Structures are given as C-alpha cells and as structure tokens.
Amino acid sequence: MDSTPKIAVISLIFKSIEYLEFVKKSFDRHNDMDNTDLWFVGNNATPEVVNHIQSKGYNYLDFRTEQQEIYPKNIKQIYQAWNFGGNNIPVDLLIFINSDMFPCCNKWLEKMLAWYRDDIALVERLVESGRLRSGQ
Fold first, then answer.
1. Separation CA 76–CA 11 (nearest Å)
2. Which of 6, 38, 64, 75 has its CA 20 to 30 A from that of 89?
C-alpha cells in the first residue's frame, strides 16, 4: 500500500432517505481527507432511495436478494450486502459504518487511522441493544 491509501466508508441503506442524508451530511462535515469517499450499498433499497441517490450522484452499489424478513431474521442478507460492498469497491481500506455509528466528530477518521497497522484490523463493537455493559 502506498503512503496515501484510497479509503471507502461504506453505509448500508434500505428505505430511509432521511438517514441517508444524515450520514452524507455528517460525513461531509467531519471529513476533510481527499483520499476518502462515502459509498452507500443498497440492501434491497426502495425505488425512492435508489432514485434519490441517483439524482444526487452519490457513490452507490445496488445489492438485491430475496425478499427480506424483519430484523433480526434478515441478518444473513445484511452481512451479504456488507460483503457485496467490500468485494466491489476498489480501494485499499474499507470502513463499514452501521446505522448506530456515523461520522460524528471532526477528524474522526484520522483519529481512527492513527491506530492502523498492517498487522491489525480496526474494529468497533456493534451494540445492537443500545447498551454495552462495562468491561465488554
């Protein structure tokens, strides 16, 4: 990898244009790295979401699978969509953000990348319940 890796921040999107715009505005406000792009991966995204993304010219990949059940029964399709995005966006580093994680403060990506080394993976724990007990 050269000294300036190409980075993609990837967010899944299904049906919320409001959430999509929230992530986009937050990313734009708190990211000033020229080598980083935000990508949306549609996880059976609604036609309204797809049309909105296309009209705005946002980076987008469209993942389609069988009709999804309601969460948590659709977890298989969620991970398939993540894998689809990771396999089809040609960059050096992938940053996956979930619906409860978003670019929320200045220099968030630079601060995270300060910990990056070739022999480790940077991860954040997903807190589905909204609570994380101390020590975990």
1. 16
2. 75
Picking from 7, 124, 122, 4, the residue whose alpha carbon sits closest to that of residue 59 is 7
Could you tell me which residues come within 8 angstroms of residue 135 by beta carbon, excluding any fewer than 6 positions away?
A: none
What is the per-residue pLDDT across 73-124, written as a single tens digit (0 to 9) for each?
778 888 899 899 999 999 988 888 876 666 677 888 888 888 888 777 766 6
Distance between CA atoms of 84 and 24, rounded to whole angstroms? 20
Q: What is the C-alpha separation between 6 and 22, in angstroms, rounded? A: 23
What is the length of the chain? 136
For 115, half-sphere exposure in the C-beta direction (CA atoms, 13 angstrom radius) is: 9
Confidence (pTM):
0.82
Residue 96: what are its φ and ψ, rounded to 5°? -95, 130
The beta-strand segments (E) located in the chain are 7-13, 36-43, 59-63, 93-97
